[in-house]
Amino acid sequence: MLLAPFAVRCDVAPYRLSGTVVAALLNHRDSLAALGDAVLEPPYRGAPKAVALAIKPRHALVAPGGALLVDAAGELAVGASLGVVIARTACAVREADALAHVAGYLVACDATVPHASHYRPQIRAMARDASCALGAAVVARDAVGDAGALAVRTFVDGGLAATSSTAELVRGVARLIAEVSDFMTLAPGDIVLAGSAPDAPRVRAGARIAVEIERIGRLETRVAVAERVAA
Amino acid sequence: MRRARVAYAGALHEATPAGDGAIRLADGRVVAEDAVVWLPPFEAGTVIALGLNYADHAKELAFQKQDEPLVFLKGPASLVGHRGETRRPADATFMHYECELAVVIGKPARHVPRARAIEHVAGYTIANDYAVRDYLENWYRPNLRVKSRDGATALGPWLVDADDVEWPPVRALRTLVNGKQTQSGHTRDLVFDIAFLIEYLSAFMTLDTGDVILTGTPEGVVNVDVGDEVVCEIEGLGRLANRIVGDDIFGRGANANARGRGPGE
After folding, report:
1. What distance in Å separates residue B46's CA from the closest CA in chain A?
2. In tens digits, what is the pLDDT along chain A, a chain of 231 residues?
3. Which of B15, B67, B111, B198 has the lowest tally of Cβ within 10 angstroms?
4. Chain centroid offset of residue B221 CA
5. Which residue of B has its CA nearest to A91?
6. How far does B260 lie from chain A, in Å, by closest CA?
7. What ipTM was estimated for this complex?
8. Distance CA A23, CA A117 (A)
9. Which CATH architecture has domain B42-248?
10. Model-level pTM greater than 0.90?
Protein backbone atom coordinates (compact mmCIF):
# COMPACT_ATOMS: atom_id res chain seq x y z
CA MET A 1 0.00 0.00 0.00
CA LEU A 2 1.23 3.46 -0.86
CA LEU A 3 -0.27 5.30 2.03
CA ALA A 4 2.56 7.58 3.02
CA PRO A 5 1.63 10.70 1.03
CA PHE A 6 -2.03 10.39 2.00
CA ALA A 7 -1.35 9.86 5.68
CA VAL A 8 0.24 13.27 6.13
CA ARG A 9 -2.29 15.87 7.25
CA CYS A 10 -2.32 18.85 4.93
CA ASP A 11 -4.85 21.50 5.99
CA VAL A 12 -3.62 24.03 3.49
CA ALA A 13 -3.93 24.07 -0.32
CA PRO A 14 -3.38 21.75 -2.16
CA TYR A 15 -4.67 19.68 0.84
CA ARG A 16 -2.80 16.59 -0.32
CA LEU A 17 0.69 15.50 -1.20
CA SER A 18 1.56 14.29 -4.69
CA GLY A 19 4.00 11.62 -3.55
CA THR A 20 6.89 13.18 -5.46
CA VAL A 21 9.82 13.94 -3.19
CA VAL A 22 13.06 15.49 -4.38
CA ALA A 23 15.92 15.85 -1.92
CA ALA A 24 18.67 18.45 -2.08
CA LEU A 25 22.09 16.91 -1.45
CA LEU A 26 25.23 18.57 -0.13
CA ASN A 27 23.09 21.61 0.67
CA HIS A 28 24.50 22.19 4.13
CA ARG A 29 27.39 24.63 4.41
CA ASP A 30 29.56 22.00 6.12
CA SER A 31 28.90 19.25 3.55
CA LEU A 32 31.79 20.06 1.25
CA ALA A 33 34.11 21.04 4.09
CA ALA A 34 33.55 17.58 5.54
CA LEU A 35 35.07 16.13 2.36
CA GLY A 36 38.20 18.28 2.60
CA ASP A 37 40.61 18.39 -0.32
CA ALA A 38 38.86 15.41 -1.91
CA VAL A 39 36.44 17.93 -3.43
CA LEU A 40 39.18 19.13 -5.75
CA GLU A 41 40.49 15.70 -6.65
CA PRO A 42 39.17 13.01 -8.98
CA PRO A 43 36.51 11.96 -9.44
CA TYR A 44 34.92 15.28 -8.40
CA ARG A 45 37.50 17.78 -9.69
CA GLY A 46 35.82 20.75 -8.06
CA ALA A 47 32.79 21.78 -6.04
CA PRO A 48 29.33 21.22 -7.50
CA LYS A 49 27.88 24.16 -9.40
CA ALA A 50 24.19 23.30 -9.75
CA VAL A 51 22.22 21.96 -6.82
CA ALA A 52 22.68 18.21 -6.44
CA LEU A 53 19.39 16.33 -6.14
CA ALA A 54 17.93 12.89 -5.65
CA ILE A 55 14.42 11.60 -6.31
CA LYS A 56 12.87 9.49 -3.58
CA PRO A 57 10.93 6.58 -5.09
CA ARG A 58 7.42 6.05 -3.81
CA HIS A 59 8.23 3.03 -1.65
CA ALA A 60 10.93 5.01 0.14
CA LEU A 61 8.32 7.13 1.88
CA VAL A 62 7.29 6.23 5.41
CA ALA A 63 3.90 7.37 6.69
CA PRO A 64 3.75 9.17 10.03
CA GLY A 65 4.15 6.62 12.80
CA GLY A 66 5.86 4.10 10.54
CA ALA A 67 9.35 2.68 10.94
CA LEU A 68 12.51 3.20 8.96
CA LEU A 69 13.82 -0.14 7.71
CA VAL A 70 17.39 -1.33 7.82
CA ASP A 71 19.09 -4.62 6.94
CA ALA A 72 19.62 -6.85 9.95
CA ALA A 73 23.29 -6.00 10.42
CA GLY A 74 23.08 -2.65 8.72
CA GLU A 75 23.44 0.95 9.72
CA LEU A 76 21.58 4.08 8.66
CA ALA A 77 22.56 7.73 8.76
CA VAL A 78 19.44 9.64 9.75
CA GLY A 79 19.38 13.05 8.13
CA ALA A 80 16.96 15.59 9.57
CA SER A 81 15.53 17.79 6.87
CA LEU A 82 13.04 20.55 6.38
CA GLY A 83 10.43 19.43 3.86
CA VAL A 84 9.02 22.18 1.66
CA VAL A 85 5.54 21.46 0.30
CA ILE A 86 4.67 23.04 -3.05
CA ALA A 87 1.35 24.86 -3.28
CA ARG A 88 1.14 25.65 -6.96
CA THR A 89 2.91 24.65 -10.14
CA ALA A 90 6.41 26.06 -10.08
CA CYS A 91 8.22 26.29 -13.41
CA ALA A 92 11.25 28.50 -13.75
CA VAL A 93 10.19 30.70 -10.89
CA ARG A 94 12.39 33.55 -9.81
CA GLU A 95 13.85 33.41 -6.34
CA ALA A 96 11.84 36.49 -5.39
CA ASP A 97 8.61 34.74 -6.35
CA ALA A 98 9.46 31.30 -5.02
CA LEU A 99 7.93 31.49 -1.57
CA ALA A 100 4.53 32.27 -3.06
CA HIS A 101 4.67 28.72 -4.44
CA VAL A 102 5.14 27.17 -1.02
CA ALA A 103 2.14 25.73 0.83
CA GLY A 104 3.97 24.95 4.01
CA TYR A 105 6.57 22.80 5.67
CA LEU A 106 6.92 19.44 7.33
CA VAL A 107 9.58 17.57 9.23
CA ALA A 108 11.37 14.80 7.35
CA CYS A 109 13.94 12.21 8.27
CA ASP A 110 15.89 10.99 5.25
CA ALA A 111 17.81 7.84 6.14
CA THR A 112 20.60 6.61 3.90
CA VAL A 113 23.08 3.79 4.11
CA PRO A 114 26.37 5.50 4.96
CA HIS A 115 28.53 5.79 1.85
CA ALA A 116 31.79 7.60 1.22
CA SER A 117 31.41 8.45 -2.45
CA HIS A 118 29.17 11.15 -3.88
CA TYR A 119 30.24 10.48 -7.46
CA ARG A 120 27.40 8.22 -8.53
CA PRO A 121 23.68 8.43 -7.67
CA GLN A 122 24.04 5.69 -5.03
CA ILE A 123 20.45 4.61 -5.21
CA ARG A 124 21.21 1.39 -3.35
CA ALA A 125 22.04 3.58 -0.36
CA MET A 126 19.56 6.38 -0.98
CA ALA A 127 16.40 4.95 -2.56
CA ARG A 128 15.66 2.08 -0.20
CA ASP A 129 12.19 1.04 0.80
CA ALA A 130 11.01 2.82 3.96
CA SER A 131 13.95 5.19 4.19
CA CYS A 132 12.32 8.60 4.19
CA ALA A 133 9.99 9.33 7.09
CA LEU A 134 7.48 12.15 6.79
CA GLY A 135 6.09 14.21 9.65
CA ALA A 136 2.46 14.01 10.66
CA ALA A 137 1.33 17.34 9.28
CA VAL A 138 2.15 20.16 6.92
CA VAL A 139 2.38 23.46 8.76
CA ALA A 140 1.14 26.39 6.68
CA ARG A 141 3.77 28.80 5.40
CA ASP A 142 2.03 31.76 7.02
CA ALA A 143 2.07 30.04 10.39
CA VAL A 144 5.81 29.42 10.12
CA GLY A 145 6.90 32.76 8.75
CA ASP A 146 10.56 32.96 7.82
CA ALA A 147 11.86 29.41 7.51
CA GLY A 148 15.41 30.64 7.10
CA ALA A 149 16.64 30.18 10.67
CA LEU A 150 14.81 27.28 12.26
CA ALA A 151 16.56 25.09 14.81
CA VAL A 152 16.74 21.40 13.84
CA ARG A 153 17.39 18.73 16.48
CA THR A 154 17.80 14.99 16.13
CA PHE A 155 17.36 12.69 19.11
CA VAL A 156 18.42 9.06 19.22
CA ASP A 157 16.95 6.95 22.02
CA GLY A 158 15.98 10.13 23.79
CA GLY A 159 19.39 11.76 23.72
CA LEU A 160 20.25 14.81 21.64
CA ALA A 161 22.39 13.48 18.79
CA ALA A 162 22.66 16.34 16.34
CA THR A 163 21.71 19.99 16.03
CA SER A 164 21.69 22.29 13.06
CA SER A 165 19.71 25.18 11.66
CA THR A 166 18.04 25.97 8.37
CA ALA A 167 20.24 29.06 8.40
CA GLU A 168 23.12 26.72 7.57
CA LEU A 169 21.64 25.66 4.22
CA VAL A 170 23.74 26.65 1.21
CA ARG A 171 20.56 27.35 -0.70
CA GLY A 172 17.61 28.48 1.33
CA VAL A 173 14.04 27.54 0.45
CA ALA A 174 13.46 30.25 -2.16
CA ARG A 175 16.80 29.76 -3.88
CA LEU A 176 16.28 26.00 -3.93
CA ILE A 177 12.86 26.25 -5.57
CA ALA A 178 14.19 28.68 -8.15
CA GLU A 179 17.10 26.41 -9.07
CA VAL A 180 15.13 23.17 -9.15
CA SER A 181 12.16 24.60 -11.04
CA ASP A 182 14.47 25.96 -13.69
CA PHE A 183 14.69 22.48 -15.20
CA MET A 184 12.20 20.40 -13.25
CA THR A 185 8.65 21.69 -12.81
CA LEU A 186 7.35 21.22 -9.29
CA ALA A 187 3.69 20.29 -8.94
CA PRO A 188 1.22 21.01 -6.15
CA GLY A 189 1.87 18.63 -3.28
CA ASP A 190 5.46 17.87 -4.27
CA ILE A 191 7.97 17.93 -1.43
CA VAL A 192 11.45 19.39 -1.72
CA LEU A 193 13.72 18.24 1.08
CA ALA A 194 16.05 21.12 1.82
CA GLY A 195 18.83 18.78 2.91
CA SER A 196 20.56 17.67 6.04
CA ALA A 197 23.85 18.35 7.75
CA PRO A 198 26.82 16.01 7.20
CA ASP A 199 27.73 13.49 9.88
CA ALA A 200 24.12 12.54 10.47
CA PRO A 201 23.69 10.24 13.49
CA ARG A 202 24.31 6.55 12.70
CA VAL A 203 21.73 4.15 14.01
CA ARG A 204 20.88 0.46 13.93
CA ALA A 205 17.74 -1.61 14.29
CA GLY A 206 15.94 -0.88 17.51
CA ALA A 207 16.87 2.81 17.67
CA ARG A 208 14.18 5.37 18.38
CA ILE A 209 14.54 8.58 16.44
CA ALA A 210 12.94 11.98 16.90
CA VAL A 211 13.47 15.00 14.70
CA GLU A 212 12.30 18.42 15.83
CA ILE A 213 12.20 21.50 13.69
CA GLU A 214 11.36 24.74 15.40
CA ARG A 215 7.81 25.90 14.64
CA ILE A 216 7.22 22.88 12.34
CA GLY A 217 6.92 20.04 14.78
CA ARG A 218 8.35 16.75 15.91
CA LEU A 219 8.63 13.53 13.94
CA GLU A 220 9.06 10.28 15.84
CA THR A 221 10.07 7.05 14.22
CA ARG A 222 12.01 3.92 14.97
CA VAL A 223 14.40 1.69 13.09
CA ALA A 224 13.24 -1.83 12.35
CA VAL A 225 14.76 -4.74 10.46
CA ALA A 226 13.67 -5.09 6.84
CA GLU A 227 12.40 -8.60 6.44
CA ARG A 228 13.32 -10.44 3.29
CA VAL A 229 9.87 -11.32 2.09
CA ALA A 230 9.58 -11.92 -1.62
CA ALA A 231 6.64 -10.49 -3.53
CA MET B 1 -1.75 -6.36 -27.76
CA ARG B 2 -0.40 -2.85 -27.86
CA ARG B 3 -2.02 0.15 -26.24
CA ALA B 4 -1.49 3.87 -26.28
CA ARG B 5 -2.91 6.69 -24.22
CA VAL B 6 -3.98 9.66 -26.27
CA ALA B 7 -5.95 12.86 -25.88
CA TYR B 8 -8.66 13.41 -28.48
CA ALA B 9 -11.66 15.68 -28.67
CA GLY B 10 -11.46 16.77 -25.07
CA ALA B 11 -10.76 13.51 -23.26
CA LEU B 12 -8.08 10.94 -22.59
CA HIS B 13 -8.47 7.58 -24.29
CA GLU B 14 -6.86 4.22 -24.51
CA ALA B 15 -6.10 3.45 -28.14
CA THR B 16 -4.96 0.49 -30.22
CA PRO B 17 -3.51 0.33 -33.74
CA ALA B 18 -6.06 0.43 -36.56
CA GLY B 19 -3.64 0.10 -39.46
CA ASP B 20 -2.43 2.55 -42.08
CA GLY B 21 -1.79 5.59 -39.90
CA ALA B 22 -4.98 5.19 -37.91
CA ILE B 23 -5.72 4.30 -34.30
CA ARG B 24 -8.87 3.01 -32.67
CA LEU B 25 -10.05 4.62 -29.45
CA ALA B 26 -11.60 2.42 -26.78
CA ASP B 27 -14.99 3.98 -27.56
CA GLY B 28 -14.85 2.74 -31.14
CA ARG B 29 -13.79 5.88 -32.99
CA VAL B 30 -11.04 5.40 -35.56
CA VAL B 31 -8.92 8.51 -36.02
CA ALA B 32 -5.71 9.50 -37.75
CA GLU B 33 -2.62 9.03 -35.60
CA ASP B 34 -1.67 12.67 -36.13
CA ALA B 35 -5.09 13.90 -35.02
CA VAL B 36 -4.44 12.97 -31.39
CA VAL B 37 -2.00 14.04 -28.70
CA TRP B 38 0.07 11.06 -27.64
CA LEU B 39 0.84 10.66 -23.96
CA PRO B 40 3.22 8.20 -22.34
CA PRO B 41 1.40 4.89 -22.89
CA PHE B 42 0.91 4.07 -19.20
CA GLU B 43 0.66 5.96 -15.93
CA ALA B 44 4.25 6.00 -14.84
CA GLY B 45 5.30 5.52 -11.24
CA THR B 46 8.97 5.63 -10.37
CA VAL B 47 11.13 6.22 -13.44
CA ILE B 48 14.39 4.29 -13.18
CA ALA B 49 17.15 4.76 -15.73
CA LEU B 50 20.42 3.03 -16.48
CA GLY B 51 23.65 4.67 -17.53
CA LEU B 52 26.50 2.99 -19.36
CA ASN B 53 24.60 -0.25 -19.85
CA TYR B 54 25.94 -1.05 -23.30
CA ALA B 55 29.61 -1.90 -23.42
CA ASP B 56 30.17 0.08 -26.61
CA HIS B 57 28.49 3.22 -25.26
CA ALA B 58 30.51 3.04 -22.06
CA LYS B 59 33.65 2.83 -24.18
CA GLU B 60 32.50 5.73 -26.33
CA LEU B 61 32.21 7.87 -23.23
CA ALA B 62 35.54 6.60 -21.88
CA PHE B 63 34.21 4.75 -18.87
CA GLN B 64 35.27 1.46 -17.47
CA LYS B 65 32.71 -1.26 -17.08
CA GLN B 66 30.85 -0.95 -13.79
CA ASP B 67 30.86 -3.52 -11.03
CA GLU B 68 27.22 -2.79 -10.47
CA PRO B 69 24.70 -0.97 -12.62
CA LEU B 70 24.70 2.80 -12.75
CA VAL B 71 21.12 3.65 -11.85
CA PHE B 72 19.40 6.98 -11.39
CA LEU B 73 15.82 8.15 -10.90
CA LYS B 74 13.83 10.78 -12.73
CA GLY B 75 10.98 13.02 -11.71
CA PRO B 76 7.50 12.77 -13.23
CA ALA B 77 7.75 16.09 -15.09
CA SER B 78 10.47 14.60 -17.28
CA LEU B 79 8.02 12.49 -19.28
CA VAL B 80 6.53 13.30 -22.66
CA GLY B 81 4.70 11.16 -25.21
CA HIS B 82 5.17 10.21 -28.85
CA ARG B 83 5.33 13.16 -31.26
CA GLY B 84 6.19 15.41 -28.32
CA GLU B 85 8.60 18.30 -28.12
CA THR B 86 11.75 18.59 -26.07
CA ARG B 87 13.40 21.88 -25.21
CA ARG B 88 17.03 22.45 -26.03
CA PRO B 89 18.41 25.14 -23.72
CA ALA B 90 20.05 27.97 -25.65
CA ASP B 91 23.34 27.60 -23.80
CA ALA B 92 23.71 23.88 -24.54
CA THR B 93 26.47 22.82 -26.92
CA PHE B 94 25.92 19.06 -26.65
CA MET B 95 22.44 17.68 -26.19
CA HIS B 96 21.86 14.14 -27.34
CA TYR B 97 19.08 11.57 -27.57
CA GLU B 98 19.35 8.05 -26.15
CA CYS B 99 17.20 5.30 -27.65
CA GLU B 100 16.38 2.74 -24.98
CA LEU B 101 14.23 -0.30 -24.39
CA ALA B 102 11.84 0.58 -21.55
CA VAL B 103 10.57 -2.21 -19.32
CA VAL B 104 7.26 -1.54 -17.61
CA ILE B 105 6.52 -3.29 -14.32
CA GLY B 106 3.13 -4.99 -14.08
CA LYS B 107 3.15 -6.54 -10.64
CA PRO B 108 4.88 -5.47 -7.42
CA ALA B 109 8.39 -6.89 -7.18
CA ARG B 110 10.32 -7.32 -3.95
CA HIS B 111 13.31 -9.66 -3.60
CA VAL B 112 12.58 -11.24 -6.97
CA PRO B 113 15.16 -13.73 -8.23
CA ARG B 114 16.13 -13.33 -11.87
CA ALA B 115 14.42 -16.57 -12.86
CA ARG B 116 11.08 -15.05 -11.89
CA ALA B 117 11.67 -11.52 -13.19
CA ILE B 118 9.50 -12.01 -16.27
CA GLU B 119 6.44 -12.49 -14.06
CA HIS B 120 6.72 -8.84 -13.05
CA VAL B 121 6.98 -7.35 -16.53
CA ALA B 122 3.79 -5.86 -17.99
CA GLY B 123 5.38 -4.96 -21.27
CA TYR B 124 7.76 -2.76 -23.18
CA THR B 125 7.93 0.58 -24.86
CA ILE B 126 10.55 2.83 -26.42
CA ALA B 127 12.27 5.59 -24.50
CA ASN B 128 14.27 8.55 -25.70
CA ASP B 129 16.24 9.63 -22.67
CA TYR B 130 17.76 12.98 -23.63
CA ALA B 131 20.83 14.37 -21.88
CA VAL B 132 22.35 17.83 -21.89
CA ARG B 133 26.01 17.07 -21.39
CA ASP B 134 26.98 20.67 -20.73
CA TYR B 135 25.35 20.35 -17.32
CA LEU B 136 27.12 17.15 -16.36
CA GLU B 137 28.90 17.33 -13.02
CA ASN B 138 30.85 14.76 -11.06
CA TRP B 139 28.42 14.78 -8.12
CA TYR B 140 25.72 12.11 -8.20
CA ARG B 141 26.55 11.82 -11.88
CA PRO B 142 24.51 11.89 -14.03
CA ASN B 143 22.92 14.71 -12.06
CA LEU B 144 19.25 15.57 -12.43
CA ARG B 145 19.92 18.78 -14.33
CA VAL B 146 21.28 16.55 -17.10
CA LYS B 147 18.76 13.74 -16.85
CA SER B 148 15.51 14.80 -15.20
CA ARG B 149 14.63 17.80 -17.31
CA ASP B 150 11.05 18.76 -18.10
CA GLY B 151 9.83 16.88 -21.14
CA ALA B 152 13.23 15.39 -21.92
CA THR B 153 12.26 11.73 -21.53
CA ALA B 154 9.97 10.56 -24.30
CA LEU B 155 8.04 7.31 -23.94
CA GLY B 156 5.88 5.48 -26.45
CA PRO B 157 4.12 5.22 -28.74
CA TRP B 158 2.83 1.85 -27.52
CA LEU B 159 2.93 -0.29 -24.44
CA VAL B 160 3.49 -3.70 -26.01
CA ASP B 161 2.37 -6.59 -23.82
CA ALA B 162 5.10 -8.84 -22.46
CA ASP B 163 3.12 -11.81 -23.82
CA ASP B 164 3.79 -10.58 -27.34
CA VAL B 165 7.56 -10.29 -26.93
CA GLU B 166 10.14 -13.04 -26.50
CA TRP B 167 11.94 -13.27 -23.15
CA PRO B 168 14.37 -11.80 -22.84
CA PRO B 169 13.65 -9.33 -25.64
CA VAL B 170 16.19 -9.64 -28.43
CA ARG B 171 15.63 -6.58 -30.54
CA ALA B 172 17.59 -4.20 -32.72
CA LEU B 173 17.23 -0.52 -31.92
CA ARG B 174 18.24 2.60 -33.78
CA THR B 175 17.83 6.36 -33.92
CA LEU B 176 17.30 8.56 -36.95
CA VAL B 177 17.84 12.31 -36.90
CA ASN B 178 15.99 14.03 -39.73
CA GLY B 179 15.67 10.67 -41.42
CA LYS B 180 19.34 9.75 -41.23
CA GLN B 181 20.44 6.87 -39.03
CA THR B 182 22.85 8.01 -36.34
CA GLN B 183 22.64 5.26 -33.73
CA SER B 184 22.17 1.53 -33.89
CA GLY B 185 22.52 -1.27 -31.40
CA HIS B 186 20.97 -4.43 -30.13
CA THR B 187 19.48 -5.38 -26.77
CA ARG B 188 21.59 -8.58 -26.70
CA ASP B 189 24.51 -6.27 -25.86
CA LEU B 190 23.07 -5.04 -22.56
CA VAL B 191 25.74 -5.21 -19.85
CA PHE B 192 23.15 -5.87 -17.15
CA ASP B 193 20.12 -7.63 -18.59
CA ILE B 194 16.50 -7.06 -17.62
CA ALA B 195 16.28 -10.08 -15.32
CA PHE B 196 19.39 -8.94 -13.47
CA LEU B 197 18.07 -5.41 -13.12
CA ILE B 198 14.77 -6.56 -11.64
CA GLU B 199 16.59 -8.81 -9.19
CA TYR B 200 19.11 -6.11 -8.30
CA LEU B 201 16.63 -3.28 -7.85
CA SER B 202 13.95 -5.29 -6.07
CA ALA B 203 16.48 -6.31 -3.44
CA PHE B 204 16.37 -2.81 -1.93
CA MET B 205 13.47 -0.98 -3.55
CA THR B 206 10.05 -2.42 -4.28
CA LEU B 207 9.16 -2.10 -7.94
CA ASP B 208 5.49 -1.37 -8.41
CA THR B 209 2.93 -1.38 -11.17
CA GLY B 210 3.74 1.39 -13.61
CA ASP B 211 7.35 1.73 -12.58
CA VAL B 212 9.55 1.75 -15.63
CA ILE B 213 13.17 0.79 -16.18
CA LEU B 214 14.97 2.53 -19.05
CA THR B 215 17.68 0.01 -19.83
CA GLY B 216 20.35 2.27 -21.31
CA THR B 217 21.54 3.20 -24.76
CA PRO B 218 24.16 1.89 -27.22
CA GLU B 219 26.82 3.97 -28.96
CA GLY B 220 26.02 6.60 -31.53
CA VAL B 221 24.83 9.62 -29.62
CA VAL B 222 25.24 12.89 -31.49
CA ASN B 223 24.21 16.46 -30.85
CA VAL B 224 20.72 17.54 -31.91
CA ASP B 225 19.59 21.06 -32.70
CA VAL B 226 16.39 23.03 -32.61
CA GLY B 227 14.13 21.87 -35.43
CA ASP B 228 15.54 18.35 -35.61
CA GLU B 229 13.16 15.43 -35.76
CA VAL B 230 14.48 12.53 -33.71
CA VAL B 231 12.98 9.06 -34.21
CA CYS B 232 13.89 6.15 -31.95
CA GLU B 233 12.95 2.72 -33.24
CA ILE B 234 12.97 -0.70 -31.67
CA GLU B 235 12.35 -3.67 -33.89
CA GLY B 236 8.72 -4.71 -33.60
CA LEU B 237 7.86 -2.16 -30.90
CA GLY B 238 7.38 0.86 -33.12
CA ARG B 239 8.90 4.26 -33.71
CA LEU B 240 8.96 7.07 -31.17
CA ALA B 241 9.15 10.53 -32.72
CA ASN B 242 10.19 13.75 -31.00
CA ARG B 243 11.03 17.26 -32.12
CA ILE B 244 13.66 19.55 -30.64
CA VAL B 245 12.39 23.03 -29.84
CA GLY B 246 14.12 26.15 -28.60
CA ASP B 247 13.98 28.30 -25.49
CA ASP B 248 12.08 31.05 -27.26
CA ILE B 249 8.67 29.37 -27.25
CA PHE B 250 9.03 28.85 -23.50
CA GLY B 251 9.69 32.53 -22.90
CA ARG B 252 13.23 31.73 -21.90
CA GLY B 253 16.61 33.01 -22.89
CA ALA B 254 16.69 36.62 -24.08
CA ASN B 255 12.97 37.05 -23.47
CA ALA B 256 12.83 35.40 -20.07
CA ASN B 257 12.32 38.60 -18.13
CA ALA B 258 9.74 39.88 -20.58
CA ARG B 259 7.55 36.86 -19.96
CA GLY B 260 7.35 37.38 -16.24
CA ARG B 261 6.86 34.26 -14.18
CA GLY B 262 5.67 35.65 -10.91
CA PRO B 263 2.36 34.49 -9.50
CA GLY B 264 -0.53 36.62 -10.62
CA GLU B 265 1.46 38.28 -13.34
Report:
1. 6
2. 457 888 999 999 999 999 999 999 999 999 999 999 999 999 999 999 999 999 999 999 999 999 999 999 999 999 999 999 999 999 999 999 999 999 999 999 999 999 999 999 999 999 999 999 999 999 999 999 999 999 999 999 999 999 999 999 999 999 999 999 999 999 999 999 999 999 999 999 999 999 999 999 999 999 999 988 777
3. B67
4. 15
5. B261
6. 9
7. 0.96
8. 17
9. Alpha-Beta Complex (3.90)
10. yes
